[in-house]
Write a structure and sequence with these properties.
The chain has a five-stranded mixed β-sheet with strand order 1-2-3-5-4, sandwiched between helices. The protein is built from 14 helices and five strands. The chain has helices at residues 2-16, 20-30, 36-54, 70-73, 76-95, 143-162, 169-179, 185-192, 201-208, 215-235, 237-248, 252-261, 265-274, 278-290, and strands spanning 56-61, 64-68, 103-108, 123-126, 131-136. It is of the alpha/beta class. Helix 6 crosses helix 7, helix 8 (185-192) packs across helix 14 and helix 11 (237-248) crosses helix 13 (265-274). Bound molecules: zinc ion. Zinc ion (ZN) is lined by residues 152, 156, 173, 176.
Length: 293
C-alpha cells in the first residue's frame, strides 16, 4: 500500500494541476490492483484525459471557461454556456457569493459517459488554482437537469470558498441540494412516513462519505437537502450563506473555543448562525419534513 500511495501521489499531483495526459500516463503505469478510491481516481483521470485530447477551451465570462469537444457538442455549446452563466449567477446571488474563483466547466467526452463516475450527473473538484466542474454530454438533451446539475456543482464552489474548505460533507451536500432546487415532495414524504429513516448528523456524514453509490447514499443526499430546505424556509437562504462564512471566519477565538470545549466547527457555526444545537436542527428539520412542510 505504501508504494502504491507514492505512485498515486505522482498521478494525483498531475491531476490536481489539470495536467491530464501526465496524470493518465502515471495512472496507467500503476495499472493493476486498482481498488476502492483508486479505481474512482483512475476512472476520473481517464475521463478528463480522454476529453482533453480532443477538446478546446473557451472563456465564457471573466471567471469561467468552457471546455468542449467541438465535434461532439456541435450547436449545443451555446446552450451549455447559457445554462452555466444562469446557474452561476443564480447560486452566487442566493448565497451571497461574488465569483472569486476561476471555474473550468468541462463537458466530458462521449466515450467517458458511463455510469461509473461517482457524481450522479456530474462532479466538482478543487484543483490547484481553479474549480473544475465536469458534466456528461448526455445532459445536453435534458436542459432542466443540466441547469440543476450546474447549480448543484457550483454550490460546491461556493461552499468551498466561503468556508475555506472547512465544511463537513453533509454541509457541502446540504447547500448543493438546496441550490439545485431542493427535494421533490414525493421523496420527502418517504421520510415523513418512516419508510426511509432520518439519520443523525454523524450517520448522515458517514453515509455521504461512502464511496459506492447505493440507495442509502442517495437517501442521505435527499435528507441533507431537506435540512437545507428547512433552514432556508425558517431563516432565508442569505442566512445559509452567512452560516457558511462562519466556517471561514474562524479566527483565534473560534480556535480557542474548539480546543477548550471540544466542539466541532459545524456545531459552532450552527449555533452562531441559527442559535441551535445540531441535534435540535436535525430534529426540527425532521418535524418540518413530517408536517409536509
Ligand atoms: Zn454534490
Amino acid at each position: 500500500v505504501g508504494i502504491e500511495n507514492v505512485d498515486w501521489g505522482v498521478a494525483l499531483a498531475h491531476y490536481h494541476a489539470d495536467r491530464l495526459e501526465e496524470a493518465y500516463e502515471a495512472a496507467l503505469d500503476i495499472g493493476a490492483g486498482l481498488l476502492g478510491r483508486y479505481l474512482t481516481w483512475f476512472r476520473t483521470i481517464e475521463a478528463e484525459a480522454l476529453t482533453r485530447r480532443r477538446s478546446e477551451l473557451r472563456r465564457i465570462t471573466e471567471f469561467a471557461e468552457l471546455e468542449v469537444i467541438p465535434d461532439e457538442i456541435g450547436g449545443g455549446e451555446r446552450l451549455v454556456a447559457d445554462a452555466a452563466l444562469r446557474a452561476f449567477q443564480d447560486v452566487g446571488s442566493r448565497f451571497g457569493y461574488s465569483h472569486e474563483s476561476q471555474i473550468r466547466l468541462t463537458v466530458l467526452a462521449q466515450e467517458s459517459d458511463a455510469p461509473w463516475l461517482y457524481g450522479r450527473f456530474g462532479y466538482c473538484i478543487a484543483k490547484n488554482d481553479l474549480y473544475k466542474i465536469c458534466v456528461p454530454l448526455s445532459l445536453l438533451g435534458r436542459p432542466q437537469e443540466l441547469y440543476d446539475t450546474l447549480r448543484h456543482e457550483y454550490a460546491h464552489v461556493v461552499v468551498g470558498m466561503l468556508t475555506k474548505d472547512r465544511a463537513p460533507r453533509w454541509v457541502d451536500e446540504m447547500v448543493a441540494m438546496l441550490a439545485e432546487g431542493g427535494v421533490r415532495r414525493d421523496r420527502a414524504r418517504l421520510f415523513a412516513t418512516g419508510e426511509w429513516s432520518w439519520l443523525s448528523r454523524e450517520e448522515l456524514e458517514a453515509e455521504l462519505l461512502e464511496l459506492e453509490d447505493s440507495e442509502g447514499r442517495f437517501m442521505a443526499y435527499l435528507q441533507a437537502g431537506l435540512v437545507g430546505m428547512y433552514l432556508a424556509s425558517r431563516f432565508g437562504e442569505g442566512k445559509v450563506g452567512e452560516f457558511l462564512r462562519a466556517f471561514g471566519s474562524g479566527g483565534h477565538w473560534i480556535e480557542l473555543w474548539r480546543r477548550v470545549r471540544g466542539s466541532s466547527l459545524d456545531e459552532i457555526a450552527i449555533r452562531a448562525a441559527f442559535g441551535l444545537k445540531p441535534g435540535e436542527l436535525f430534529e426540527s428539520a425532521f418535524q418540518w419534513t413530517r408536517a409536509g412542510r
